[in-house]
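Retro notes, item 3 of 5
We never archived the inputs for the magnesium ion complex last cycle. Fixing that now. Sequence and ligand:
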Amino acid sequence: MISSAEGIKYRHAPPKAVAMIEALRGLGYSAATALADIIDNSIAAEAKNVWLNFVWSGEKSRVEILDDGCGMSAVMLDRAMRLGELNPLEERKESDLGRFGLGLKTASFSQCRRLTVASIGHEGLQCLRWDLDVLSRSDDDGWYLLEGPDPGSVSYLSSLLDAGRGTLVLWEVLDRIVTTSFGEPEFLDLIDRIERHLSMVFHRYLEGGRPRLKLFINGRRLKPWDPFMSGHPGKPWHSPQIRAPGHDRVEVECHVLPHKDRLTAKEFDEAQGPEGWTAQQGFYVYRNERLLLAGSWLGLGQGRSWTKDEAHRLARIRIDLPNSADADWKIDIRKSTARPPVALRAWLIRLAEDTRARARKAFAHRGRPPATREGGSVLQTWRADHSEGGMRYRLDTDHPAIRAVLDQAGPLLSEVRAMLRVIEETVPVQRIWIDTAENRDTPKTGFSGEATSEIISVLDVMYRNMVIHKGMSCELAKDRLLRTEPFHEYPELIAALPELN
Ligand SMILES: Nc1ncnc2c1ncn2[C@@H]1O[C@H](COP(=O)(O)OP(=O)(O)OP(=O)(O)O)[C@@H](O)[C@H]1O
Ligand SMILES: [Mg+2]
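Structure as it came back at the time:
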């Protein structure tokens, strides 16, 4: 009650049930995003398995979502079915995927006219339902929450009763799915689309030998779809995980995917994702490891916002948010949009710019290592070794600068080897990456910006070693240097090396 002492005149203005619910149906869910919202609730209820069952029967088709979570008591189910029962400003458990207290209802109404929720928690079976057709027949616009399932649908609760625990969400009268000339083939296509979407949205829950969640569609278990091709040896680059400045629990990881030439046809096809290579570039925003947004440049850019184009299709950037960042990132009810806070935009633009440049390069150079001006292959100093345990950078001991020292090290050989190992084990990967992201500029390598005399002095040592110690002809030594990193960038200096006798 508003206190009368405040002197405020008022009247009660509750919404009309049917009008309100009909309006909420237009929030813009697809069948797949609506189902993801229902699965969020199962995950929050600590379900380990969620079974989706799509039953085609023309206008009587239905969708069942059964989980083995903690279930609900009578009071909990009553609250769960009401709209506007939970305040979005309330603090949530860290693992909760909800926020608005609406998803179960809004997601369901976006697809169906009859929503039945049955649940078995510690108080045994509870069941309530909303039926828009029943509501629209009432003449007083009341919020009539119905008890139990529709009399014709009692048998659909059997899977929950058999399980003895968990929650069943039942969608019937699927007027937004089964529209005019929508038949069984379209239903099957829809199931395929839903499968691709859910494999992506929940991939981090579905991954691993002992996944946190198993999802089934009509009995078939869903495989996770990892947008970042983690562990693929053809990936040219990915960053370490870095924390957003001033936002402790916001983390970012940038990825450049392998060029098509480094993938099999099957891998290429699978890696593109539900919407295809170009559409799937950009940021992937996760909230509590659940994907909200799959591939978007978030309206960021230099001057104008970046658009999705072919050249940047290998760039994918992961952003991890906790649910406490919802207001900052303007998470919407559908859990499908997010907007970075102003304070982080410049930082994100820098990271994205760096990743986009690398992706552009990988796309243009087909992910190949550096080449001579004629396109020949170049011996690199560093190689990336991939193994089950991860990736490490190793020096290539065939590089002439290293080989020469090893060959002549004599009694110092073990010390020299130890020194190289120490260098390999302390490559400042994170440091380089963060400096790159912060300064916009990649740290200088390959003698770029160094005085020519400096390059010549190193080149000269290598050249003399090849001719004098290795007995190569001057011509052969120069040819080798032309194919050796970083000297392949300086063919003019190599050509000017003196003839040695
Ligand atoms: N499968 C389920 N198992 C147990 N409890 C559930 C389940 N589904 C919903 N609930 C309960 O119902 C409540 C309302 O769910 P609903 O999806 O409408 O809102 P929310 O998850 O709190 O927030 P959001 O609108 O962001 O999804 C949940 O907070 C939860 O307590
Ligand atoms: Mg929810």
